[in-house]
Structure formats: structure tokens, C-alpha cells
Amino acid sequence: MSLSTQPDVHDENQRRAARMATAAMLPPALLLLVILPAAAARAGGRTLVFILAGQSNMSGRGGATNGTWDGVVPPECAPSPRILRLSPALRWEEAREPLHAGVDLGNVLGVGPGMPFAHAVLAAPGAVSPAASLGLVPCAQGGTPLANWSRGTELYERMVTRARAAMAAGGELAAVLWYQGETDAMRREDAELYQGRMEALVRDVRSDLGRPDLLVIQVLIATAQYQGKFLDSVREAQKAVKLPNVKYVDAMGLPIASDNTHLTTQAQVQLGNMLAKSYLATL
What we know:
Blueprint (H helix, E strand, L loop, with lengths): L8 H17 L2 H14 L5 E8 L1 H4 L23 E4 L5 E3 L19 H10 L9 E6 L15 H15 L3 E8 L8 H21 L6 E6 L10 H9 L6 E5 L14 H16 L3
Parallel strand pairs: 1-4, 1-5, 2-4, 5-6, 6-7
Antiparallel strand pairs: 2-3
Helix pairs in contact: 1-5, 4-8, 6-7
């Protein structure tokens, strides 16, 4: 892994052009909502932006599988002035658990992988400038099949709008972290179509955000919603995605809560570290 924090001039020009094009797609009032608070947030350096998308294990159910969240926040998930989240109102604010509050609607939320991921990236020697911050863009929604994330759907358009808002504020889009598929493991048809749908999603997101090389890190699912029968089929489809710069980490073997579907709080901390290791390996 390179320890240099100086961006390549050509790459920086491409990122600047992408930010300008993104800003042009946002209504002026919306642009002001993001830029003004972001200017203060970035006063000490650049903001690396990560999109968090998928379903409930990405938004986080750690400590929240018995009807209420237990409120336990491990040190790896503690708030930090260098870790921001894009709020539902498209404003940068200091991130804290539950990270998807106001985004993953209608569900009891707990700890997810986003905060431990951010802490691990910031702690990696030489990976990020001491003046930089990480901007997390929560987009996940529990119980959603991959078909609900195709271009033109409400979830897809919300994700792209939120990503564009973060980029228009000067954020540098670094990666999409994707954890989804438990719902698709319930039906044979969805499992069989998973690879093609995922490849289409990656192509569309890269095109709409002007980042043809955008890094996407998938999480291979470890459980199936309602004990669906096609867990292995979805996992194989995830592994089979044939696009450059798409990586994966494997959630299999991480501790599962008593509902047999969701990762525990400690499992989410482990997953966040796994995602960080995968991202850091690309630097």
C-alpha cells in the first residue's frame, strides 16, 4: 500500500471535473444546503466520501433485533470530529450511531459497519492525511431486494442524489460499500438474476456519478431473510460479478443475532474492519 497522500494531477483533474458536473445537476437551493455547512467541515482538508448502500445489515441492526436498540456504542463506533455523515436533509454533520437514522425508514436501527470502517481507515498509518475527514453517505433500506435498486427506482435515485450532493460540496468519492442480498435469497428467480442485476447497478452508478472506475466493495451475505433457500446461489452470484474494481469481503462466520438474519454489534465492528482492510489494499 502506498503511503503517499499526494493525488495524481490527472486523477485530481478528473475528480474536479466530476464535482463540477455533479454540482450542475443539483438545484441551486439544494446545492446551498450542502455547500455552506460542508465548507466549515472541510476547513482542515479534503473529505473522502463513501456511499453505504444495501439493506438492513448495512444500515445496522447490531443490538437492535429485539424491538428496541440497546444503545451500546463500542469504542470503534464512537463519534469523531473527523467522521461526518450526510443527514437526511443533505447536510454534513458529525456521524454517530445509529448512522442510518432518518434514512432507513420504518425500522429499529442499531450499529452497522460504517463507523468502525471509518475509524479503521483513519487509523491506518499514512492512508489518509491528518487534516482529512471521512464523509459517510447512508443510503441503505432494510428488507429491499436488488430489483428495488435498479436505475429509476426510488432507492436508486435517492442514493444517486445523496452521492451527488456530497460530491457537489467538494467531497471526493472514494467507494461504494454494498451489503445486500438476503431478500434475494428467498426466491430462485431473484437469486438467478442477481449477478446481472448487480453488474447493471454498478455500471449505472458509475455512469450517473461520472466515475467509470468507482471502487465497489460488496459484502458476501451470510444469512437469508426468513431462512430463504437460495443463500448459496446469491453468494456465488456476488462472487461472479465480472466488472473491474469490484471487490468483496465475506460475512460468513461472523456472529449472528438470535433472529438468525442480522449481525451482532461485535460482528459489525469486525465487518467494518474487514471493509477498511479491503479499501486500504487499493491505495
